[in-house]
Amino acid sequence: MCVSRRDFLRLGGAAAAFAATNTLFQTASLAAANGSYRAMVGVFLFGGADNWNMIVPTDTRYAAYAANRGSTLALPQASLTPLAGQPFGLHPSFAPLATAWNEGALSAVLNVGSLHQPLTKAQYQASSTARPLNLMSHSDQQAQWQGLRTRETNSDGYMGRMNDREAILAVPNLMSIAGANLALIGRSSSPLILPSAGTISRNGYNAASTDAAVIARQSALAAFGDGSGMGTATDLSAKAMGSAYNQAATANTIIGATTSSVDQYFRNPTTGAALTSDVSRQLLRVARMIEARGTLGHGRQTFFVSQGGYDNHSDQVSGNNTTGTQANLYADLAMALAGFYAAMKSLGMQENVTAFTMSDFGRTFKVNASRGTDHAWGNNHLVLGGAVKDRTLFGAYPDVTLGGTQDIDSAALGRWIPTTAMDEYIGAIASWYGVAASDMPYVFPNWATWTSGGRGPIGLFG
């Protein structure tokens, strides 16, 4: 009988699942209820989010913001959600995060992006070798944000490399609820990938089937599952496939449970209805996995989630600029993050979990002819968690003069050179998470550049 690759990947059995579950409970004591536990949750905004409307200055800089974004894009100052103690406000769609800001659990990093080295406009114009490769390309910039190499091919990602330095567990503590992404690829480790809805299934498997062909196939796979008598390669392969099934079976008991204590927090704050956006479903699953950290034996957890739809070359805004495609995306993101933060508070884990946004790149400051924005460079990002510095912003808001000292665009569209490197941004979170100083150059290939000449991880925590 020929065993196909698809059948091979369906391998597993009840005995193996029991063995894995038993191992999990043996290791559960390794995960503290809180204490040294840490989790980092990366939220990738695919498409290049125009986060120049995510956070807006409310002091004298607002005039330049309004003039250079223009009447089509600029948010009315009165519509902004104020950030008490700072001369900035958030897009009105982010109002659900006001509580987190007021409680000292929300921060923002201004004008951050992919950088090979500190860069001025003169240096940018003088030498292409000082720049990241293929700026403003979706695929290349997504790879650079996830792999953290700006002048060479990225074949693995920083989350995967972090996981390479952690202990091997029955269920990996690196998880994605947003599919397979470069950030998750390690050199010696693998992530657990969970669906945002439903459970992990073994396609074509039915233990109760009476069909002769199905029974024969499942008998063959069961025999293969005991690979000890078939040589080393088969034995190792069988164990690997059995381990994958065991991981799925264990995860299914968590994500497939009818209810969980964290579910109640993922609701629309106005209507009380359950949140249904994909990013909210992803973050709910993250919350459930954090809730189950003790059962899983996890003292550290890393998660990758995402939200798509930000490549808004047209109809980014409508009406009074506070509505439209971007406002709807932001509203889904804000409610999902607010629900996640409330869930962490309910678990007493708000100090131990940090969520943060990433994206391909920022957008042009100047609107295009279709009420949208085009690909640019520097961008703003949010960091959510009780461990961040109380009501503090990081980085530097740029001089938004079109064609000015920070605009690389020959047509003066407002493509800002980042002043904070993604390494300085994500490196701060990785250090808080517990990556050893000796491992930082492994996780961050360009670490030496960003820890010399007075540079270093931004002071997000403390």
Automatic annotation (TrEMBL):
<dbReference type="InterPro" id="IPR006311">
    <property type="entry name" value="TAT_signal"/>
</dbReference>
<feature type="signal peptide">
    <location>
        <begin position="1"/>
        <end position="19"/>
    </location>
</feature>
<dbReference type="Pfam" id="PF07394">
    <property type="entry name" value="DUF1501"/>
</dbReference>
<protein>
    <submittedName>
        <fullName>DUF1501 domain-containing protein</fullName>
    </submittedName>
</protein>
<keyword id="KW-0732">Signal</keyword>
<dbReference type="InterPro" id="IPR010869">
    <property type="entry name" value="DUF1501"/>
</dbReference>
